[in-house]
Amino acid sequence: MNLEQETRNDIVILYVKEERLDAHNSVDLKAAVQKLFEEGKKNVLVDLKEVRFIDSSGLGALVSGFKNAISHQGNLKLSSLQSQVKSMFELTRLHRVFEIFPSASEAVENFQ
Amino acid sequence: MEGNAIEVDIKVPNKTRYLSLIGRIGEDIARELERYSGDRETLAYHLNLVLTEAMVNAIKHAGPKEPEKLVRIVITIRLDDLTIRVYDDGQGFDINSIQPPNFEELEDRGRGIFLIRSLMDSVSYRKNCKENILEMKKKLV
């Protein structure tokens, strides 16, 4: 999976540079998030700007990351969801679980 | 597309790398429908999603591993409805025993069949003499 990583103010931003987040590649995202929390990072933002399509496995990988954050006393937030992707969060009620921001910059401000 | 039924019969290796190919076929069908008056881009996403979820389901339930194992997907498009059938030759499962996800508990898994049921008008999973068939129907009016 194509992931880009940037650190701003102690927040690690993972940019998912894929059109699809599905059962084929979501294990990579799950592993990358897990690794960050295990390394001791506390604040992780997953930016989905380029993701046009998400399936139940993609949602599951993000839920796994969220639970990982809780167990490490950290935070995992999301940014830049395309409308169809956002509707999948709504259908599965996961929009009530995640903090979702319109852009990475707005999310970064919120971590402070 | 003209009024007569169109049938698309696809066989692909049971590997997740083919999910995007199958999903894209669903999107193309949604965009080509002759008479559909709803939101085509939403329908395109939904067909992409149910095909993706159904194929993952077939891969999970596939029989003993063989390199040439295939998943067969048949999409039938008629004037007023669309039917997707996905075939697997595994042990199968009882679709009626699958409960909707518990929204109060955060599980990593268990949303696939829920999504299919939410987006299609009818869903069944049955066994014939040699394989299981997941059948999903959607009205196009």
Fourth-level CATH superfamily of chain B: Histidine kinase-like ATPase, C-terminal domain
Domain module count of chain B: 1
Number of strands of chain A: 7
Using the coordinates shown, work out and report the CATH topology of chain B.
Heat Shock Protein 90
Low-pLDDT segments of chain B: none
Structural class of chain A: alpha/beta
Q: pLDDT average of chain B, as an integer?
A: 90
Please summarize what this structure is.
With 112 residues, chain A is an alpha/beta fold. Chain A is 41% helix and 25% strand. The radius of gyration of chain A is 12 Å and the shape is globular.
Descriptive account of the structure:
Chain A: InterPro entries: Anti-sigma_ant, STAS_dom, STAS_dom_sf. Chain A: This is Anti-sigma factor antagonist. Chain A: Residues 21-111 form the STAS domain. Chain A: Belongs to the anti-sigma-factor antagonist family. Chain A: GO terms for molecular function: anti-sigma factor antagonist activity. The complex is a heterodimer of chains A (112) and B (141). By secondary structure, chain A is of the alpha/beta class. Chain A has one domain: STAS domain (Transcription Regulator spoIIAA), CATH 3.30.750. In chain A, 41% of the residues lie in helices and 25% in strands. Chain A is built from four helices and seven strands. Chain A has helices at 26-38, 56-71, 83-91, 104-111, and strands at 3-8, 11-16, 20-21, 43-47, 53-54, 75-79, 100-101. In chain A, the strands form two sheets. A five-stranded mixed sheet of chain A has the order 1-2-4-6-7. A two-stranded parallel sheet of chain A has the order 3-5. In chain A, helix 3 (83-91) links the parallel strand 6 and strand 7 (100-101). In chain A, helix 1 packs parallel to helix 2 (56-71). The longest helix of chain A has 16 residues, at 56-71. The radius of gyration of chain A is 12 Å and the shape is globular. The model of chain A has no long low-confidence stretch (mean pLDDT 97). Helices cover 30% and strands 27% of the residues of chain B. Chain B has helices at residues 19-32, 40-60, 112-119; strands at 6-13, 70-77, 81-88, 122-127, 132-139. Chain B is an alpha+beta fold. Chain B is built from three helices and five strands, in the order βααββαββ. In chain B, strands 1-2-3-5-4 form a five-stranded antiparallel sheet, covered by helices on one side. The longest helix of chain B has 21 residues, at 40-60. Chain B has one domain (6-139): Heat Shock Protein 90. In chain B, a hairpin with a 4-residue loop joins strand 4 and strand 5 (132-139).
